[in-house]
Design a protein that fits this description.
Layout: H1 2-15, H2 19-40, H3 42-53, H4 57-85, H5 87-100
Length: 104
């Protein structure tokens, strides 16, 4: 374990730590917060949807679980694409699409 830690420290000393790393951490942190906020928002909408749409508990749980199921199922796909195309390419394209879609 100590050997891996020393190798990691050596690599970090060689590449340095700068503003780019802080910018990346901030951007990815905000994107993660957006994903969690969108997914957990169903907990706020669900109780009123039961009354307004006269949904059963099975229908409610299916809709609530759909967001989590989408994340789980698509993670393998995006992992594969990221391995093939690179993280930068994926981030640039998915963030651009995310910003354009609400405008439509």
């Amino acid at each position: 374990m100590n050997m891996q830690l020393n190798e990691f420290d050596t690599v970090m000393e060689q590449i340095g730590f700068g503003k780019v790393h802080c910018y990346i951490m901030l951007t990815l942190g905000l994107l993660q917060m957006l994903t969690i906020h969108e997914t957990m928002g169903m907990g706020i909408i669900a109780p009123s949807a039961v009354c307004d749409l006269r949904m059963s508990l099975v229908q409610l749980s299916t809709i609530t679980a759909a967001a989590f199921l989408g994340i789980i199922c698509s993670s393998y796909f995006w992992g594969y694409i990221t391995d093939k195309m690179g993280r930068r390419w994926i981030l640039l394209h998915t963030i651009s699409i995310m910003l354009l879609v609400p405008a439509l």
